[in-house]
Fold D-alanine-D-alanine ligase.
Amino acid sequence: MRSVDNFGEPELEVALELIDEVLARGEHTSYRVLVAAGAGEDEPILGYVCFGATPMTETTFDLYWIVVAPLARGRGVGRALCDALDLHVRDVGGKNIRVETSSQTEYEAATRLYQRQGFRECGRIADFYREGDDLITFVKRV
Ligand SMILES: CC(C)(COP(=O)(O)OP(=O)(O)OC[C@H]1O[C@@H](n2cnc3c(N)ncnc32)[C@H](O)[C@@H]1OP(=O)(O)O)[C@@H](O)C(=O)NCCC(=O)NCCS
């Protein structure tokens, strides 16, 4: 997480909080994490996706964070994590995956990944994060 240059301290703090929650509470939290790693025993972690059932919905999930280590990017790890997420959501009867992102250029890779994975923009709030930085909501039917 610390090698990701488009995350500031507030993003890092929230993302790490969710990981800590999963490590501490396992199945007893609604957050879930899938990790991508090499096949060998001491292979480093390449990336992860954190998601969870959206409160007050029956079949919708939120993708909260997806991160691939800078050195492992552009090799399909993000795609593999999204595919694994789809499988998991489908397995537990989920129908929609929602994800929110920023319109800033730092998030272009994420936006491209979501679009290539079949997410469609379904909403946008102008100047949400700060002037000129919109919140974009994407959704995918699984
Ligand atoms: C977004 C991110 C997870 C993508 O991971 P990745 O492993 O490099 O992505 P992949 O190699 O699996 O690429 C998946 C698709 O997205 C496209 N894509 C990925 N990065 C791209 C980029 N920088 N520019 C254009 N397209 C890009 C690929 O072309 C690919 O398309 P395809 O499936 O048609 O071949 C990674 O760039 C990242 O960790 N970014 C920083 C963290 C972040 O912003 N996370 C999102 C907010 S929580």
In short: Residues 35 and 41 are 14 Å apart (CA to CA).
